Amino acid sequence: MLLYVFMSIAVFGLEPPTPGTSPGTAPAAPANATAPAIAPAPKFTPNITYTSYPREGAPPLELMLNLAQPADLKPGEARPCIVAIHGGGWAAGRREDLNFLISEAAKQGFVAATVSYRFAPGFRFPAQIEDCAAAVRFLKQNAEKYGIDPDRIGAIGFSAGAHLAMLLAVGGENDGLGMKAADSPLTGRVRAAVSFFGPTDLSSKDFPPNTTQILNGLIGAGDIIDGVSKVDRAKKASPVTYVTKDDAPILMYFGTKDPLVPHTQAYGMLDAMTKSGVSGRAEIIANEGHGFKMPEMTRTLKDASEFLLANMPAVPMPTDAAPAAGTPSR
User: Fold this and answer.
1) 3-class DSSP state for residue 265?
2) What pLDDT is recorded for position 105?
3) Would strands 58-69 and 43-55 be described as parallel, antiparallel, or unpaired?
4) What is the mean pLDDT of residues 46-75?
5) CB atoms within 10 A of CB 246
6) Which residue in 36, 73, 79, 279 has the fewest CB atoms around it within 10 Å?
7) Type and span of the H or E element at 51
8) Which of helix, strand or coil describes residue 103?
9) Taking all residues of the chain, what is their mean pLDDT, rounded to a whole number?
């Protein structure tokens, strides 16, 4: 949890305590300095059901998100939105781990959501990305209600959540990832994505044995399942598989001492993005692991915030207008 507290402090421009002071001790202010304004507490709404699945002999499985909105959000306003996706090897973790992050985002003017998704191995891929795409569609569908600009939704994820954030940037309507529902013209695609130490090519041979075991939970360990080879299942679950020229920009971070996701995962994704003309970049940081230390955490998360904003510019387009011919659905 402490990791996410530092993430929230860094990514939205708030500074950590001055070295040598305790977290509750403010540094001495210069003479005649004006006290900084304290952002009002955002409106926080937990446990919003964004989709559900029927279960035989049991109540429906409800998937929820927590939402934070700026305190000064006015009726009719449409703010940019950040969807935060937690990690945990696609098999654990809680959306609540990112509550602090989305609350800080709301203090800075964003509407922000942290989402839950179905876990492996009980639910194999593509269940996880289907759920995240459904959450994005839900936010677009309810954009007016929650004060969201449906054309300015970005995603940020950590580890397994980073993998899912990248899929939201590259997944197409016909890729079998649940990006588009049959009953809605909206898609689960986002305008930009930031990945912190997320795997890009699950078919790669550069993963350590413990990560291979985690991947087996996501895609299945058998050589052939339902007539599909393990290699093909891994490729289907890989963001690098889906990169095309119309994809959203992606920013990736890796550490050279990551024991779970090797930094070499950056190379194939960058090659695919270069070949297709997709904008973005990767940073490989020496001696960082699966979760960055200060001050790199502060620097990278501030850069991530700037990247999302720069790649989600306001686009004046009526939300009820039909897309022009050849224009993909949101």
Assistant:
1) helix
2) 85
3) antiparallel
4) 97
5) 11
6) 36
7) strand 43-55
8) helix
9) 87
CA distances from 32 to 17, 28, 35, 112, 229 (A): 21, 12, 9, 36, 69
Contact 115, 132 (CB under 8 A): yes
Q: What's the confidence (pLDDT) of residue 315?
A: 62
| 156 pLDDT more than 80 | yes
CA-to-CA distance for 182 and 247, rounded, in angstroms? 22
- CATH architecture type of domain 2-12+43-310: 3-Layer(aba) Sandwich (3.40)
DSSP string across 143-161: HHHHTEEEEEEEEEEETHH
The pLDDT of 225-241, averaged and rounded, is 97
Q: Both tokens of residue 306? A: 């700037």
Query: pTM score, two decimals?
Result: 0.86
Residue ranges of domains in the chain: 2-12+43-310
The secondary structure of residue 24, as a DSSP letter, is T
φ, ψ for residue 241 (rounded to 5)?
Answer: -65, -30
Cis peptide before 126 (omega within 30 of 0): yes
